[in-house]
Design a protein that fits this description.
Distance between the termini of chain B: 43 Å
Strand order of the largest sheet of chain B: 1-2
Oligomer: heterodimer
Number of helices of chain B: 16
CATH class of the largest domain in chain A: Alpha Beta
Largest sheet of chain A: 6 strands, mixed
Order of helices and strands of chain B: HHEEHHHHHHHHHHHHHH
Largest interface: A-B, 46 and 38 residues
CATH topology of chain B: ABC transporter involved in vitamin B12 uptake, BtuC
Strand content of chain A: 15-25%
Radius of gyration of chain B: 25 Å
Distance between the termini of chain A: 61 Å
Number of strands of chain A: 20
Number of domains of chain A: 2
Strand order of the largest sheet of chain A: 6-7-8-3-9-10
Structural class of chain A: alpha/beta
Number of domains of chain B: 1
CATH architecture of chain B: Orthogonal Bundle
CATH superfamily of the largest domain in chain A: P-loop containing nucleotide triphosphate hydrolases
Shape of chain A: globular
CATH architecture of the largest domain in chain A: 3-Layer(aba) Sandwich
Number of helices of chain A: 18
Structural class of chain B: mainly alpha
Shape of chain B: globular
CATH class of chain B: Mainly Alpha
């Protein structure tokens, strides 16, 4: 067994100021296996990867590659030793051709012997079964193919260890299948693959072994075949997971039960969504669903006036109101958690405290700042109630894990006590535990009389929380579903049938 | 307490430079801090620095705000101050008898001129999305000619007692007037920061304009506002400068001060890419630069015309020492030294507790 380990890490420790990111973690990767590295956000997966690839220097511990001790001081050294990494955000140049991307930065015949470069790329692509031409511009390939090309590039550089960090999070289902075929092909060639993902189904579909980290510590290493899913999740979260099953969504409301909290007629925005009608009742949870690009986010943005509103009438509790800027929407009691957390949500360098109070402070006014004590009080209250993991209220929100950043933005809107809350992809890229927490929170809010519009790419998640689904296709509403026992199939059918 | 600590670490660079300069000066002569009293007013190295840096301090505050919100710099401030002071001089010279009232009215009119400049730059940057440096290049190029045209002649002289007292010292007051005016200005800024959300809004816009907008802040308005504030700073600085000089030299008044102001902002620990800002840091940075100028004059016995070269060398050294690259290296070196001192081993062999981990497959080996 000993010789099979191509990578062996023992007693790895890594600390950042105020945070113990890794403590005494062991990890072993065998030749020709797919090894899933699992854990919630902030568990230490990324840190471990960065230690392997030389981005971070370990504080303590040993790393051995093929039995020989190694110590990488830079990512370049790791690459030269045969460790390839493909990140979630593809680090290739979209404006270059496929072949150019394969060879850029590698000296040999790149940009000199075009013919040879293209030939070599053709051979590699076909041997791995990647459907792309070498002279094709990279941006014209689908995301999955781009992902595969990034992998092919790593493989071509003689990599024996391939690290895939969330490779599937932006891929459609059939694209994931293609990627898995490629992974199996590489596995049969003896490449050891470390696979990081939040999709548990995918882990079981393709992994041989699973290593679980939690809070920077090693929980254990398991054969995938002998670890039931429910057990994996509870190991990641550190608690039993009975409450997911217990979660119960609310009964759908009768369509004409009182004056709707929010009502839009023929609303449209300059983001290209067709004029649509929309209502939500007090305490209702509904959602826009549809494929990526169907206009579900754009609809939400139109309601909040995040994009320029170009037409339509809006009523709040039956009263006609004008919402043409986000501030108008906020003053009407609408909150909006945007899809793009980094780009539109957090103010990265500001403290957790400032990020939490921001929306309420802006509503209160430029000339009326909260006192330090009030602000601290608000921050502490929500850090506690949402269980946000942060060293202090003064920590820049940037240094929190993704799930905790999302909770900070949730706290920001909860603090404004909205009547109507729009959550666009609140659970994207977030660990299972936090996902469940957020879903529970949504149902709790609805019980307290807050109306919530919930948008998610994971239909299953929407089925669990929404009692009414508005199905979108090609930037317009094509149908509506409500009831307690909706299935994914029902939604698919509406999308397939199009407009009734 | 934690907040205080964060503040101090932020000010580490400007304060350490200040300390180094003081040490250099003390080596040169132990009488550096000595203060003499002339006709009831204090003079000496320190009062001179406070006096000389007045305009720079005020402009650095405006520069810090503009930089934070617009992620760019205003390079037209020297020329802008020349315009506002030209307006001031024009008003005072045409108002007949010079009284405190005419001076005050002249100052307010020059503030309006400053606001007009702020509106002009602010609209270019916030509405037309012109790069701040390009937008303010317009005034940088044309401002001094405009000032000349306002006065209609070269160097009108501002010869009256009140101006003289504003530029130097009021009898019976121990501190020179520009020092007091600067202190008052700093106090007003502190009050504004305390009683409004200026900091939160400006920093939000500077860090992430898109997120700021979705939280109800209009980035355009905030960027515009910082240019308005810069306009006021310009007018105050111009007012002090022209009263100090006693005449309005539209060619040389506050020439190249934008370079020192940008430098003060940088030394103050502010990112020139916008976002979080430190007014305290900028103020200390401004005084540091003035002290540096005077230290070089005092230290080096050469033609004053060669001083800028020495200044440049000093600043390059300062910026390299303070760069993240050197700081990371220093932190790493420090850790390594500490680690050696603690355990007597080399870090690569792992922490003591790591060696205890045993694995039946691979017995723990010690690598050096």
């Amino acid at each position: 067994m000993l010789s099979e380990n191509i990578l062996k890490m023992e007693g790895i420790c890594k600390a950042f100021p105020g945070v113990r990111a890794l403590h005494n973690v062991d990890f072993a990767l065998r030749k020709g296996e797919i090894h899933a590295l699992m854990g919630e956000n902030g568990a230490g997966k990324s840190t471990l990867i960065k230690v392997i690839t030389g981005v971070y220097e370990k504080d303590a511990g040993r790393i051995a590659l093929n039995g020989r001790p190694i110590h990488f001081r830079s990512p370049k050294e790791a690459q030269n030793s045969g460790i390839g990494t493909v990140y979630q955000e593809i680090a290739l140049c979209p404006n270059l051709t496929v072949a150019e991307n394969m060879f850029v930065g590698r000296g040999r015949y790149a940009f000199v012997q075009w013919k040879r470069m293209n030939e070599k790329t053709t051979r590699l692509l076909s041997s791995l079964g990647i459907p792309a031409r070498p002279t094709q511009q990279l941006s014209s390939c689908s995301l999955a193919v781009q992902q595969m090309i990034a992998i092919a590039r790593a493989v071509d550089m003689d990599c024996r260890i391939l690290i895939l960090d969330e490779p599937t999070s932006s891929l459609a289902e059939d694209e994931v299948r293609k990627l898995f075929e490629l992974m199996r092909e590489l596995k049969s060639r003896g490449v050891g693959i470390i696979f990081i993902t939040h999709f548990i189904e995918q882990v079981y579909e393709i992994s041989d072994r699973i290593t679980v980290l939690r809070n920077g510590e090693l929980i254990g290493e398991y054969e995938a075949s002998s670890l039931p899913q429910i057990e994996l999740v509870s190991k990641m979260m550190g608690k039993a997971l009975g409450d997911v099953a217990k979660m119960k969504k609310l009964e759908p409301l009768a369509p004409d039960s009182g004056v709707p909290v929010f009502e839009a007629t023929a609303l449209s925005s300059n983001a290209g969504v067709r004029p649509f009608n929309f209502t939500i009742q007090k305490g209702e949870v509904n959602g826009f669903t549809g494929l990526l690009g169907s206009g579900r986010s754009e609809s939400a943005r139109a309601i909040f006036a995040a994009d320029k509103v170009t037409g339509g009438k809006v009523k709040m509790n039956g009263r006609r109101v004008k919402i043409s800027t986000p501030l108008h929407a906020m003053k009407q009691g609408i909150g909006y958690l945007p899809e793009d957390r980094k780009g539109d949500g957090i103010i990265a360098e500001l403290s957790v405290r400032d990020n939490i109070i921001l929306a309420l402070q802006v509503m209160k006014g430029f000339l009326r700042p909260f006192s330090q004590k009030q602000a601290e009080g608000f921050a502490d209250q929500y850090i506690q109630s949402l269980n946000i993991k942060t060293p202090s209220t003064n920590t820049p929100v940037r240094s929190l894990s993704g799930g905790n950043q999302q909770k900070v933005i949730l706290a920001r809107w909860l603090l404004t006590h909205p009547e109507y809350l729009i959550l666009d992809e609140p659970t994207r890229g977030i660990d299972v535990g936090t996902k469940v927490e957020i879903q529970k929170l949504v149902l709790k809010l609805a019980e307290d009389g807050v109306s919530v519009t919930f948008i998610s790419s994971e239909i299953e998640e929407m089925l669990r929380t929404c009692s009414r689904l508005i199905v979108m296709k090609d930037r317009e509403i094509v149908g509506e579903l409500s009831g307690m026992n909706l299935t994914e199939h029902d939604v698919m059918q509406v999308i397939a049938q199009g407009r009734e | 307490m934690r907040r205080l600590k964060a503040q101090v670490s932020h000010l580490f660079l400007p304060l350490s430079v200040l300390v180094i300069l003081i040490i250099i000066n003390l080596i040169k002569g132990a009488d550096y801090f000595s203060i003499t009293v002339v006709k009831g007013a204090l003079y000496g190295n320190i009062p001179n620095i406070l006096f000389g840096a007045s305009e720079l301090v005020i402009l650095s505050i405006g520069m810090a705000l503009v930089t934070a919100a617009s992620q760019g710099q205003d390079i037209g401030i020297g020329a802008g101050a020349t315009i506002t002071s030209a307006v001031f001089v024009l008003f005072v010279l045409n108002a007949g008898e010079v009284t405190l009232l005419t001076i005050l009215a002249g100052f307010l009119v020059s503030c309006v001129a400053g606001l007009v400049i702020g509106v002009f730059n602010g609209i270019l940057v916030s509405v037309f999305k012109v790069q701040p440096m390009v937008a303010t290049l317009i005034l940088f190029m044309g401002g001094r000619s405009i000032a000349f045209m306002i006065d209609g002649r070269l160097s009108p002289i501002l010869a009256n007692d009140i101006s003289n007292q504003i530029g130097t010292v009021i009898p019976g007051v121990p501190l020179q007037t520009p020092i007091i005016l600067t202190a008052v200005f700093i106090a007003i800024v502190a009050v504004v920061l305390k009683t409004t959300n200026l900091r939160l809004y400006v920093e939000s816009v500077g860090i992430n304009p898109s997120a700021a907008r979705l939280n109800g802040i209009d980035p355009k308005k905030i960027i515009f506002l910082t240019f308005l504030i810069m306009g006021i700073c310009t007018a105050v600085a111009g007012f002090i400068a022209v009263n100090k000089a006693g005449r309005h030299d539209s060619v040389n008044l506050l020439k190249f001060i934008m370079m020192d102001a940008i430098l003060a902002v940088a030394i103050g620990g502010n990112s020139l890419g916008g976002g979080k800002f430190s007014i305290t840091g900028s103020i200390i940075g401004a005084y540091t630069i003035e002290m540096l100028n005077r230290t070089l004059l005092r230290l080096i016995d050469v033609d004053p015309a060669t001083i800028p070269a020495f200044k440049a060398v000093f600043i390059i050294i300062l910026m390299v020492v303070a760069s993240p690259v050197v700081r990371d290296f220093a932190a790493k070196a420090l850790r390594w030294v500490r680690f050696r001192a603690d355990s007597g081993t080399v870090p690569e062999t792992g922490a003591p507790d790591a060696a205890v981990v045993s694995d039946p497959d691979t017995p723990a080996k010690k690598e050096v």
